[in-house]
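Quarterly update from the structural biology core.
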Amino acid sequence: MTIQVSDSQAPGSQIPDGQGELWASLRLRTQARIGLGRAGSALPTRHRLELQAAHAAARDAVHSPFDPDAVAARLTGTSVVRVRSAAPDRLTYLQRPDLGRSLHPIDRAHLPTGEWDVVFVVADGLSSRAVHEHAAAMIRATAALLPDGTRVAPVVLAEQARVALGDDVAHAMGATAVVLLVGERPGMSAADSLGAYLTHRPRPGVTTDADRNCLSNIRPPLGLAYETAAGKLVALLAGARELGRSGVALKDETDLADVSERIL
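Predicted structure, tokenized:
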């Protein structure tokens, strides 16, 4: 026996008797496409159209051009530097991941140098939309929590860039640590997800992904909030400085601390 599902389902959708309220409750707690029902042997038309729209949004996120001016405008009062990777265009960037991991030689030569504790790098990655919407707010939230006296380098806006490009930037500028904010690979539930990668004392061509700490899905209100992500980043920066390294040897214990406080 089948029944019509709740109002959140398209007319004609069917699921087993007695499970309508269960699926409706579960859908409120996840963006995953679950309990969509069926129309004959296919998805209900509304959900099929939603899936096609999500796929189009993901494609747009990957191919939309990065606008460094838009990010710079939201970082009022902050010094910024613009660089490119070795990938000359978007198509090459997508086909040659290795080129997106290193700086264009001309841009490397023009980076300012100094004794910086941390440099923030904003990279378009695979979703310029995520960077446009979240990167500036994430930098401001993190900078507000850094200890007094922290030497912060000018923010670097990197075009056609992948995560490892941050190693090249930090090494060229003389920064001890790099926090690279990058547009994550879009999926069918999120096309605006921002990732933050922390690397302590990176070395181009030597540092691996095991040497990084990653915070993913920064995109309030549906993902990680800026303040929460900033608190984790600052704690990881302090831990990396004390430990002398980042990556698998460095654990994010901020959630454990919150749990301990509630228990005690």
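The beta strands are 2-4, 14-16, 80-84, 116-123, 155-159, 175-183, 194-200, 212-218.
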